[in-house]
From TrEMBL:
GO biological process: fatty acid beta-oxidation
Keyword Lipid metabolism: yes
Family: Belongs to the enoyl-CoA hydratase/isomerase family.
GO cellular component term of the entry, any: mitochondrion
Alphabetically ordered keywords of this record: Fatty acid metabolism, Isomerase, Lipid metabolism
Entry protein name: Dienoyl coA isomerase
Pathway: Lipid metabolism; fatty acid beta-oxidation
SUPFAM superfamilies, alphabetized: ClpP/crotonase
Region described as Disordered: spans on this chain: 275-296
């Protein structure tokens, strides 16, 4: 695996298949609770991935007995650790509010980096997925989970308003305002079977082993596609989600004015005609190194 991702303290990375990066939340001793360090590393990693030609699909999972327990709560109720939790000078409420707003934007930007990285992100959830972790996976392209998984929008029980994208993305993912409001107002658990019925996840697997095995199979399939096509498709999907059908069509047609002139179109046609698997060069026009392949 490229040493590019070797220096993270709260995330573990591997390349289990060509062009597939596996990212694991690696604070299992803390139930993968989201600390300031973990938040910063997620934003940094997915920003780095955006310019990494070797990566075409990302598997996101958690080590230990559950995906994540959500924001790490400190004694006294603080949700910040490390530098962000350092003592601050006495400030008036307006200045404290501005500082809080700046911090919240930084957290939200880290979660949105999953959408903005240009690579297909597949979240594989086992066990519990609480609060901010639910908001994190809501920014993924694909969500699968285990039979015993459950999802909780827990912010209401801490007397706060979720502000990392959950209130914006969940209504669009589920398409059911009543269910979304039921979940965020009550803080109840959404079990795997109901999550699948509601559209939050698209597959429920027997256990974590099956989830990662089947997830890797899907990620490998996606990574074998043209990186130009997957990047463009993700970009147009994200744009169309937030605009009207007509605006989305205009954007997609304009995008294809240039994108349709790529050499992968001919490569795909030749592969289909010869019944051979296609091989697509990187976005930079070279066959990207496949890196060290390790088992999940």
């Amino acid at each position: 695996m490229s040493s590019r991702y070797a220096g993270y303290a709260t995330l573990a990375t591997s390349m289990p298949a060509p062009h597939v990066l596996h990212v694991e939340l690696a604070r299992e001793d803390k139930r993968n609770a989201i600390s300031t360090e973990l938040w910063m590393e997620i934003g940094k990693l997915f920003t780095e991935v955006a310019s990494d030609d070797d990566v075409r699909c990302i598997l996101l999972s958690g080590r230990g007995p559950l995906f994540s327990a959500g924001i790490e709560i400190q004694p006294g109720g603080s949700t910040f650790t490390g530098g962000a939790g350092a003592a601050r000078p006495r400030l008036d409420p307006a200045r404290l509010g501005v500082q809080s707003r700046v911090g919240a934007h930084s957290w939200a930007a880290a979660w949105s980096s999953l959408e903005r990285c240009g690579k297909v992100v597949m979240a594989c959830v086992h066990g519990g997925c609480w609060g901010a972790a639910l908001e994190l996976v809501a920014a993924a392209d694909i969500r699968w989970c285990t039979k015993d998984a459950y999802f909780v929008a827990k912010e209401i029980d801490f007397a706060v308003v979720a502000d990392l994208g959950g209130l914006q993305r969940l209504p669009k993912l589920l398409g059911n305002q009543s269910l979304v409001r039921e979940l965020v107002f009550s803080g109840r658990r959404l079990p795997a079977a109901e999550a699948a019925t509601a559209g939050l996840v698209s597959r429920v697997c027997l256990d974590k082993e099956a989830l990662l095995r089947e997830g890797l199979g899907m990620a490998t399939e996606i990574a074998s596609k043209s990186p130009v096509a997957t990047f463009g498709t993700k970009t147009v999907l994200n744009y169309s989600r937030d605009h009207s059908v007509e605006e989305g069509l205009e954007y997609g047609i304009t995008w294809n004015m240039a994108a349709m002139q790529n050499g992968d179109l001919a490569r795909a046609g030749l592969a289909l005609a010869s019944k051979q698997p296609p091989s697509f060069p990187s976005v930079a026009g070279r066959e990207a190194p496949q890196g060290e392949v390790s088992k999940l």
